[in-house]
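Design review, sub-item: ligand-bound model
Attendees: FS, YL, KQ
YL presented the inputs for the S-adenosyl-L-homocysteine complex:
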Amino acid sequence: MKVFLILGFLLILSPSWAVTPGDPFASKRQQMVREQIEGRGVRDGRVLEVLRRVQRHLFVPASLRNSAYDDRPLPIGHDQTISQPYIVAYMTEAAKINPADRVLEIGTGSGYQAAVLGELAKEVYTIEILKPLAESSGSLLERLGYKNIKVRWGDGYQGWKEQAPFDVIIVTAAPSEIPGELVKQLKTGGRMVVPIGGFFQELYLITKTDSGIKKEALLPVRFVPMIHPAEKKK
Ligand code: SAH
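KQ shared the predicted structure:
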């Protein structure tokens, strides 16, 4: 009896068994922002502050937690990936998000980019074509308390008509050309950050003007392709 009591007590005290209070990856995350993000020229103070705060390790599979702050994308299942931290920061900075903005994201994936946007904007609408990912990221974001983020299972090429127009649209899968319906759902003066291409892709900043769009190439990137619903694997 005594032995069990002592064993039980040790289990409770032992840090490897207990739920770790606080944030075991805090210093890795600060280092990630310093070296990978500030180190490569991202300067927007609000973006840097949010990247220092959002716990990226909660958005990757448990077996990859230790790699969550590495300088690369990581697999999240269903042949999809969570983007490299630098790319998330770069795209977010390029979109110039204001606190009053309403943002549409295409390709929820893990929900990490949505969480970053949710910290910076008033409302975030995010669409994911793969049902299991839409469900898991939706429940994670809810558990983390993001009341201003709505996840929809659906086809991003259609956008989110009921909530349009948006100040910002961020596309995190690559279409072969700029999706026309998304341009329609952008406000005049609104910004869209979108990777375009096939094997070779370029990240573009599209600004909607009174007379059409302005298109600016930012940098070469490598995203998973944006899927047409008809091509979707079961
Ligand atoms: N923003 C994500 C990265 C997602 S990877 C993150 O932070 O983790 C790209 C995602 O786009 C994948 O989850 C993929 O399933 C999704 N996707 C691909 N085509 C799509 C489409 N037509 N509509 C919506 N989502 C799509």
